[in-house]
Amino acid sequence: MHSISAALENLQAALSADFPDSPGVRVVDVAFPLNDAFDPLSWLCSQRCWPQFYWQQRNGDDEIAALGAVKSFLSLADASHFLQTPALPDDLRICGMNAFNPQQGALFLPRLEWRRNAGNAELRLVLWSDRSLREDALQAREFFASLKEGKLLPPLQVTLQAERHHPDHPHWIQLVSEAIATIASGALDKVVLARATDLVFTDALNAGAIMAASRRLNLRCYHFYQAFDAGHAFLGSSPERLWRRRGKLLRTEALAGTVASHPDDAQAQKLADWLMKDDKNQRENMLVVEDICQRLQTAVQTLEVLPPQVVTLRKVQHLRRCIWTELADADDERCLHLLQPTAAVAGLPRTPARAWIEQHEPFTREWYAGSAGYLSRQQSEFCVALRSAKIDGKTLRLYAGAGIVSGSDPEQEWQEIDNKAAGLRTLLFE
Q1: Hey, where are the domains in the chain?
Q2: What is the CATH number of domain 160-429?
Q3: HEC letters along 335-391
Q4: How many CA atoms lie within 13 A of 280 on its CB side?
Q5: Cα–Cα dist 143/11, whole Å
Q6: Is 284 marked as binding a ligand?
Q7: Given this model, what pLDDT does residue 396 score?
Q8: The pTM of the whole model exceeds 0.85
Q9: Rounded to an integer, what distance in angstroms lies between the CA atom of residue 396 and that of residue 257?
Q10: Do residues 41 and 154 make contact, with C-beta atoms less than 8 angstroms apart?
Q11: Is there a binding annotation on residue 290?
Q12: What is the pLDDT of residue 2?
């Protein structure tokens, strides 16, 4: 890992400058040659300071590892307002997560940010203070002194003690039946019900090792990891984009409708063909498309909905329709308000569906079905926080959900959430 050592030395040298005893911002970038076996996730998880944030775009081109908070934000709205400060660079990024309730967040301006786009990478040091830049530079020197040498993440070795579903199978059947009856009454068109599964192990879990295993096997997914401290983290490998903004150009999508995948390509293709023709799944996907288009129409002039396609993952396959448009204003706060939660994770109409979920689900979603990513004045990108897990010491809480519409079958929906949860669960027990 010679490249990280050289880059850190260059940044430390920059800290020897004389900084003013007044408010301000300084950003120092050093080029990062990709000529050794440096793994940003392993290096990040070797550190003993927090927060830690890792994110990789689903096509693998964009990757971020961020460490330490210069400034923290409890909502994307607060982060977005901060980025309007005139002196800040257009490409200054704030990283983190938004909860299922989009008014809550855990985002931060990183002290140190490693970023890669395709074959180019750099390491960035950020200094910022609303009082004294000299004071912040002193804190940055202390931060550098605390950094550790990167170590390889250990293999996953776990022993399960207990497992419990929330809701359990009988309660799930009852919940889905109640949801179908509510839809039949006309009060809802769709509601997305989720299950949380608590897996309790004999020893504390290594969240970074779980993230590394998922990144290795769950291809064509966004990978996201945020560690709040040594024992608490949230991570996942999600196939779904919430939005990507480049300037005013916006891309989002409707990912709804699911069938199992299969290791045999011919069998997987048969299942994919069935998914493309199935009325229930096509209807579920179009409900999401219509909702997204309706929500965006106040912020854009035209919308382009691309033809449906099947996204094949390790354990499941999904219907996806991409939606492209141009915003009137590059406003990430408004994007979050319009798009999260989508009908694919909450239901329709959105407000009564969220109320139904809050009243009936036997757990609080917290970060599950929220979003993870980054924002800057220049661009932003967030994935939906699906296929995810919360780490709390020895306990791993797995999440999975299913869209309930007219014609849904409770047993089939239970099997669907089993298939979705398997993307992370099988990492621990295969």
Answers
A1: 2-145, 160-429
A2: 3.60.120.10
A3: HHHHHCCCCCCCEECHHHHHHHHHHHCCCCCCCCCCEEEEECCCEEEEEECCCEEEE
A4: 14
A5: 12
A6: yes
A7: 97
A8: yes
A9: 27
A10: no
A11: no
A12: 77
